[in-house]
Amino acid sequence: MASPLSFSFELFPPRTPEGVAKLPGVIGQLAAVRPNYFSVTYGAGGSDQDGTYQTIVTVVEQTGVEAAPHLTCVGSTRAHIAALLDRYRKMGVKRIVALRGDLPATAMSPSAPGEFHYANELVRFIRETHGDAFHIEVAAYPEMHPQAQSPGADFEHFRRKVEAGADAALTQLFYNADAYFDFVERCGKAEVKIPIVPGIMPITGFANTVRFCGGCGADLPRWVRLRLEELENDKPALLDFGAEVVTRLCESLLRGGAPGLHFYTVNQASPTLRLWKNLALPMPE
Ligand SMILES: Cc1cc2nc3c(=O)[nH]c(=O)nc-3n(C[C@H](O)[C@H](O)[C@H](O)COP(=O)(O)OP(=O)(O)OC[C@H]3O[C@@H](n4cnc5c(N)ncnc54)[C@H](O)[C@@H]3O)c2cc1C
Asked: Which residues face 19 on adjacent strands?
């Protein structure tokens, strides 16, 4: 029997008093559709550590929905990561999104400070210290991580995270379903059997979409970029167009066998809930 699909919502710890005030409302709206879990990002080098923890507490106390902290390891020490894992385990967290993270370019070298350099080392550390207590998600890059030497080398590094004990992967955002299907096909050929859940970024603007894609090396199809640019000053029309493009992407992914969807909500409820409704995903009474 096929496993049930997984639908999850990603949040970030708010950085302004307005963001803090708005977040419980956003969480409440998103929780109403009963996602499988929320995940909460974490700054590399520990910059959002308390924010991540507080946001996890808010999700769990307010909604009872499972919450998964992201944990980045670059520039960190075993003792620091161990303390965070203990803290999360004590509060009942059962899922971790294990990442390398990014430090400023000057600090990213093999001799960078800290006891971890790549995410596979973090996955191994979590398994060594906590066995199977956590379900571990890792990042996957259908269009290649921007710093990788080649698609093949990047895939080998992804495989090492799976060998180290990852249970599932969440992909970087993309707008080209074929890149995802190609990645899944490569996993099949390499006997990598974990679920690869597509990361979905709703389209809410021209400049931010170009920036997000540029930042992570995702291909923004030319026709989509041109239409977004044209609609830049007509927000309702841009939102309609963006929702249509991303709904079609999600439909194609689910039809093609994707094991769920992970939505990058950017702490906004309506763009993600609009996709949810378009896709006719379950809406509790
Ligand atoms: C779903 C998702 C959530 C994210 N959440 C966060 C977050 O909360 N906070 C944050 O700061 N960032 C986050 N990121 C961004 C992520 O931290 C960056 O993309 C980072 O550059 C890579 O992290 P990783 O875990 O994929 O690293 P890795 O898997 O370690 O890979 C990083 C790079 O190093 C290469 N590599 C891996 N192992 C080796 C090796 N042994 N030798 C040489 N090269 C190697 C890989 O090919 C790749 O180019 C997220 C990304 C995704 C997709």
From this structure: none
Cβ–ligand 1 distance for 95 under 6 Å, the answer no
Residue 265 one-letter amino acid: T
Q: Percentage of the chain surpassing pLDDT 90?
A: 89
Please tell me the distance between residue 158's alpha carbon and the centre of ligand 1 in angstroms. Answer: 9
CA dist 200 to 44, 74, 76, 170, 283, Å? 22, 25, 29, 10, 19
Which tokens in the block code for residue 129?
Answer: 């210290």
Residues 166-196 as b/e (b if ≥16 CB within 10 A, e otherwise) read bbbbbbbbbbbbebbbebbebbeeeebebbb
Mean pLDDT of the region 228-254: 98
Q: For residue 151, what pLDDT is reported?
A: 97
Query: Closest Cα to residue 204, out of 243, 233, 171?
Result: 243
Please tell me the distance from the alpha carbon of residue 62 to that of residue 59, in angstroms, as a whole number: 5
What is the per-residue pLDDT for 3?
74
CB of 263 closer than 6 A to ligand 1? no
Return the DSSP state at 131.
Answer: T
CB of 42 closer than 6 angstroms to any ligand 1 atom: yes
CB 244 within 8 A of CB 279: no
Rounded to the nearest angstrom, the distance between the alpha carbon of 46 and the centre of ligand 1 is: 15
Q: Single out the residue of 228, 279, 271 nearest to residue 255, CA to CA.
A: 279
For 233, the enclosing helix (H) or strand (E) is: none
- Of 45, 59, 66, give the one whose Cα is nearest residue 13: 59
Question: How far apart are the CA of 157 and the centre of ligand 1, in A?
Answer: 10
pLDDT digits (tens, 9 = 90+) for 96-134: 999 999 876 655 555 566 899 999 999 999 999 999 999
Structure confidence by residue, pLDDT tens digits, 54-91: 999 999 999 999 999 999 999 899 999 999 999 999 99
- Is residue 229 part of the annotated active site? The answer reads no
